[in-house]
Design goal:
The protein is of the alpha/beta class. It is built from 10 helices and 11 strands. Helix 1 packs across helix 2 (about 20-25), helix 2 crosses helix 3 (about 30-45) and helix 5 crosses helix 10 (about 280-295).
Length: about 300
């Protein structure tokens, strides 16, 4: 390609200043270097771009065509350069988030509210990871962060710990199990377990509590909304197992009984999975900090 942005800036500067000396000063080059660039460009194009004996220096018809193009294109280049510079400095960019736990919506939304106030120019989107393979999507660049409690050994992915949580049973205070200090897997054998509408492989109560003990609940009822889950539990329609942050933020006034799973409790850690090296980007690092802060809030 003969023309590049250097030539477009050259034509624009000469037209605006009216002579080579002032244009050279604006472009931070010598007048002789600027004159050499003009001659080289005209030779390459096979057309004169300036009327040589005019004062101020005037463009030919061909030169004006180049000038019109320069005025249209240069602002777009400048905007792009500015945006790329801000991206390099971590001021703007894209944060597409996939969450592998349905309950994370309860925790994630206030995190995003705080994040968007600080980073209004970062494009944010959320995808529910239960409907697709989140980590491969992260590797392919389709998402930028995955919220997960299941870290995997991936050479190109870093798992940044956010906070620890405990899976707790939520029971009606009128239920006989409410008299127990903690629940064992066999306690759920005759109960209806109320869960979010996700696969069992993504629910701690199945993967870490019931399945290892070979226990199957009497029934499973899937409900989308946490408020409805708590209402059904209060009505003795079943028992739910929820992360402690969900109970803390949505169930504190419900009057429901909350019990640990086993005497020692069922504790997990929530992670932010990101492509290696990207957690140091300013807005990504701040999102992780906000997420950690939000996760350790206690009553």
């Amino acid at each position: 390609m003969i023309l590049d942005t250097r030539h477009l800036r050259l034509i624009s500067a000469i037209d605006e200043t009216g002579n080579l000396a002032r244009a050279a000063d604006r472009l931070n080059v010598t007048q002789s270097a600027l004159s050499h660039q003009i001659k080289g460009l005209e030779q390459a194009l096979g057309l004169p771009l300036f009327l040589r004996n005019s004062k101020p220096l005037r463009l030919t018809t061909a030169g004006r065509k180049v000038l019109i193009f320069a005025r249209k294109v240069l602002p777009e280049f400048q905007d792009l350069e500015s945006e790329l510079k801000r991206m390099a400095e971590g001021e703007t960019g894209r944060l597409f988030i996939a969450i592998e736990c349905h309950a994370c919506f309860e925790w994630l939304l206030p995190v995003l509210e705080s994040f968007r106030r600080k980073w209004p120019e970062v494009e944010v989107d959320i995808r529910l990871g239960a409907s697709f393979d989140a980590l491969p999507a992260l590797q392919r660049g389709e998402v930028d962060l995955v919220v997960s409690s299941d870290p995997a050994d991936q050479s190109d992915i870093a798992f940044e710990p956010l906070f620890g949580y405990e899976a707790l049973a939520v029971i009606s205070p009128a239920h006989t199990l409410a008299d127990k200090p903690f629940l064992l897997p066999e306690d759920l054998a005759g109960e209806t377990l109320i869960t979010y509408p996700v696969d069992r492989s993504r629910l701690d109560v199945f993967t870490l509590f019931l399945r290892p003990a070979g226990i199957e609940p009497a029934g499973v009822r899937q409900i989308e909304l946490t408020a409805v889950i708590l209402l059904l539990v209060a009505s003795q329609r079943g028992i739910a197992v929820l992360p402690d942050w969900v109970i803390r933020e949505t169930g504190r006034e419900s009057g429901l009984a909350v019990r640990p799973l086993t005497e020692t409790g069922l504790r997990r850690t929530l992670f932010a999975a990101v492509r290696k090296g990207e957690s140091e980007t300013a807005f990504m690092a701040d999102f992780i900090t906000i997420a950690r802060t939000r996760g350790v809030v206690t009553t």
